[in-house]
Amino acid sequence: MGERGERLESRDNRWLKRFRAALSGPAEKDGAPLGVEGPRLVGEALRSHLHIEALLVADSGERHLTRLKSVLPAGIRVLRTSDRLFAAVAGTETPQGIALLSEPPRWRMDDLLRSSALVVVLAGVQDPGNVGTIVRAAEAFGASGVIACRGSAHPFSAKSLRASAGSAFRLPALAGVAAASVLADLRARGIRQFAASLMGGERPEQSDLAGPCALWIGSEGAGLPPEIKSAADARIRIPIHQPVDSLNAAAAAAVLLYEAARQRSRASQQAEAAS
Questions:
Q1: What is the CATH number of the domain that holds 87?
Q2: What is the pTM of this model?
Q3: What is the mean pLDDT of residues 49-63?
Q4: Order of strands, sheet of 145-149, starting from the edge strand that comes earlier in the sequence
Q5: What burial class does residue 84 get, using C-beta atoms within 10 Å of its C-beta: 0-12 exposed, 13-18 middle, 19+ buried?
Q6: Does 268 score more than 80 pLDDT?
Q7: Which residues, other chains included, contact 89 with Cβ-Cβ below 8 Å and sequence gap of 6+?
Q8: How far, in Å, CA of 181 to CA of 177, rounded?
Q9: Ramachandran bin of 137, using left for φ above 0, alpha for ψ from -120 to 50, beta for the remaining angles
Q10: pLDDT single digits (tens) 164-204
């Protein structure tokens, strides 16, 4: 394995301070490393080939390290410490004894808007659990990326990462972009934009989601701002039975993504049959 290891014994150690800041600090801070905690997420991060700075292992976390040996990169810095010191830097209430620091993935708009783009754009989705769940659904249904506009939770926040179950490491994502800028950029690239709406608009199966398109998702309470609804090419509405008056943002995104995947699969089958 060729790991480089050392034992950390002081809570004032610079590495422990860096882990504490990454696991509890804001994910959107420029230049800040990404903190990942727990055996499942750490494993997903290692398999996603992120640039890993260091792996922190508590005494109780050695069993997880043993299971992850096959995916540890050569020469990785492994830092060991006590359970007490690990708990002092952890971002969870019940630490599992393993965490890592990595450089966050760096994506550009071009990475999201490849041919046959299917992009989910979040405007005002403030619950990080919803954001992470949407990222996971987006990867599952073949989306090309997610854009979390300014005012939405960051896809790399600790709760978002856990809810994404590792998808945030692989799916291209942008955060902190102004909604007006995204609208203009998508329009300039010929990406058809659909605004999810609580009232009025096409049913998902009536909308053409087989071509390059973007799905705008707003907050559960207020939905999308009026300026986004009016600027979009069409509104799209998920019919639901009363007395339920709306869907959770993540559930709504999953329904629309499934329909987009269904239409794209059918179009692909028809193209193959025609050729």
A1: 3.30.1330.30
A2: 0.91
A3: 95
A4: 173-177, 145-149, 118-123, 213-218, 192-196, 234-236
A5: exposed
A6: yes
A7: 16, 19, 20, 23, 24, 56, 99
A8: 7
A9: alpha
A10: 999 999 999 999 999 999 999 999 999 999 999 987 789 99
Among 62, 87, 102, identify where a domain stops: 102
Nearest CA to 144 out of 160, 162, 167 is that of: 167
**Selection from 178, 179, 177, 109 nearest residue 144 by Cα:** 109
- Measuring CA to CA, which residue among 130, 114, 137, 126 is closest to residue 248? 130
- Per-residue confidence band for 1, with pLDDT thresholds at 50, 70 and 90: very low
Residues belonging to the chain: 275
Task: Please give the average per-residue pLDDT across 266-271, as a whole number.
Answer: 86
Residues 40, 165 within the same domain: no
Q: In 3-state terms, what secondary structure has residue 200?
A: coil
**Average pLDDT of the chain, as a whole number:** 92
Domain range spanning residue 268? 109-274
Residue ending a domain, choose from 45, 75, 102: 102
Predicted local distance difference test score (pLDDT) of residue 116: 85
**Any idea what the CATH number is for the domain that residue 258 is in?**
3.40.1280.10
Q: Are 194 and 211 in contact (CB under 8 A)?
A: no
Do 177 and 231 lie in one domain? The reply is: yes
Number of domains, the chain: 2
Query: How far is CA 259 from its chain centroid?
Result: 20
Under 8 Å between Cβ of 173 and 147:
yes
DSSP 206-223: GS--SSSEEEEEEBTTTB
Nearest to 179 by CA among 134, 136, 225, 119: 225
Residues 126 and 204 in one domain: yes
| Domain match, 74 and 123 both | no
